[in-house]
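WARN  no MSA supplied for this record, continuing single-sequence
INFO  ligand: magnesium ion
INFO  echoing inputs
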Amino acid sequence: YQAKRGGRLWLGYTPELDQGLRSRLEALQRLRGALKKKQIQPYFQPIVELRSGVRWGLEALARWVGEGLPPDLFIPLAEEAGLVHQIDRLVLCQALRLTASREERLTLNLSPRSLLDENLLRWLERVLGQWGFPAHRLWLEVTESVLMDNPVQVRARLGALKEMGLNIALDDFGSGYSSLSYLSELPIDLIKIDRRFTAGIGKSQRSEAILRSVVALAQNLGLLCLAEGVERPEQRAWLQEVGCALGQGYLFGPPQALE
Ligand code: C2E
Ligand code: MG
Ligand code: MG
Ligand code: MG
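INFO  complex generated
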């Protein structure tokens, strides 16, 4: 580990550090194996229209079946190791195959690396065609960090995806360095508000004020708006009242295998 003290850089070593590194390498080795054996699979979580309670669509979320790690551990690990691209493709391919025959919207998470991959468009066209999945039913979720780091490339890429007929969602809105300029400049169709704000309903006036403002902003820009992490009926009622169109969370159902 590193520490700066009195203008000097100190490098330290502890046995635990070595242990941590070893288990990381081990996890990475196992993740490679899991990818080969297709043990990374999509689970699906319902997205619901708050007013009617009708299902609007499904989000596909990667799961490591068997003795695997949870996604909030293996996705960052895969991102660091340059493997997340393979996860995205595997999840996307399987999710398209599983849901092609349903008349349902599907949303999918794309890591920054996958979004900027130069073969993305060609590959998407091929797999959409392979499963007969209409582009307009697919929504790609991107996060704010990728917009900030590569604004020019991202704008061109999102534009090209829109031209193919796909839809774009901004995931975890408010969790990073949100900028209003993304919303005015980029071809975004759906804002997914981070679940930390939903968690503050009834508890934090600030969270409620932010939620109200983002919902109004989305309405004024003609964008769809979704609240993540809806767990309790009071949260749903509150969101419905302020005019949020869509919700997702344990109240409506956890991510689970399609059947
Ligand atoms: P996300 O895209 O924001 O997905 C929503 C996360 O919130 C999921 O976590 C879901 O299980 C969780 N969640 C849903 N409803 C509730 C709720 O009511 N309360 C709480 N506390 N949590 C809820 P999960 O499945 O652990 O995934 C974590 C993150 O990993 C995802 O966050 C997404 O950013 C990433 N991820 C998952 N699958 C993929 C994938 O195939 N590719 C990429 N690049 N990232 C993925
Ligand atoms: Mg998501
Ligand atoms: Mg996400
Ligand atoms: Mg999210």
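The pocket of magnesium ion (ligand 3) is lined by residues 109, 141, 171-172 (CB under 6 Å).
INFO  checksum written, moving to next record
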